Amino acid sequence: MGTIVVASDAPSVRGAVAAALGEPGTEIVEVHSGPEVAPAVDEHEPDLVVVDMQMGNMGAMAVCMDLRLEASYGNLPAVPVLVLLDRRADVFLARRFGAEGWLVKPLDSLRLRKASAALSEGGTYHDRTFQPVSSSLAPDPPLAPGAPAGGVAPADADTGAPSVGA
Predict the structure, then answer these.
(1) 17, 90, 117, 151: most buried by Cβ count inside 10 Å?
(2) 3-126: what fold?
(3) Banded model confidence at residue 151, pLDDT cuts 50, 70, 90
(4) DSSP secondary structure string, 48-113?
């Protein structure tokens, strides 16, 4: 990938993203605050912007909106934005302000690389890692007629194998 702008006021977050996405041929440009993102995009014309949700007085929501407005005026190139969310409940915000992708912290290299690849190819990446598992709350399927309670057939007295049909 060409150039990636990483915006976070936390050195650990910038470092994790740089470690996961930094490879030969990739330039990582680190900025420490939201107001620094647009000038970095203007100067470096990145392939991707990675923004931490909570940063000082201009977090991911404001950064994303700023980049979209400036691109619509022709002042900046359009660039995909990957937002690093602090909690699953913030997904609706990422959707609302038009981020192409989001990840829920804690970060890991595999998800960062998958998201980066998807966005660099013009796609989207919506992290589903921390979604509640709804299938465990679903009721059990109805039993077939004549099936024993619990869905397990009693063992055949002669062979020890489960009985088939009864």
Answers:
(1) 17
(2) Rossmann fold (3.40.50)
(3) very low
(4) EEEEES--TTS-HHHHHHHHHHHHHTTSS----EEEEESSGGGHHHHHHTT-SEEEESSP-HHHHH
